[in-house]
Design a protein that fits this description.
Blueprint: H1 6-29, H2 35-65, H3 72-93
GO molecular function: metal ion transmembrane transporter activity
Pfam family, one: Zip
InterPro entries: ZIP
Length: 100
């Protein structure tokens, strides 16, 4: 690691921390919560986090599949979408329990 890469890494970390702090200040001083907007924002945030996780995991999955397959990228992407479909089916099949 050279010294020129430390500055941008620290700047990006600082910006991410400030974005979290600014968002929490806005939420703290908001007069009342808009449930629909909150649901959309949380869904978008969860989608971004899941996307980043998959983008980080997909190359290692492709590397592992290269040993046993001639089309590792295709298999990895198909497996990703099959997993998403499976999660959607499980989400639809498990009943929602209302708190007492």
């Amino acid at each position: 690691m050279d010294a020129t890469s430390i500055g941008p890494a620290l700047l990006l970390t600082l910006l991410a921390g400030l974005a979290t702090a600014i968002g929490s200040v806005i939420a703290f001083f908001a007069p009342r919560a808009n449930i629909r907007f909150l649901g959309v924002a949380l869904g978008f945030s969860a989608g971004v986090m899941i996307y980043v996780s998959f983008v980080e995991l997909l190359p290692s999955g492709v590397d592992a599949l290269e040993e046993i397959s001639s089309a590792p990228q295709t298999i990895a992407v198909v497996a990703l979408f099959v997993g998403m479909l499976l999660v959607a089916v499980i989400d639809r099949s498990v009943p929602l329990v209302q708190p007492a």
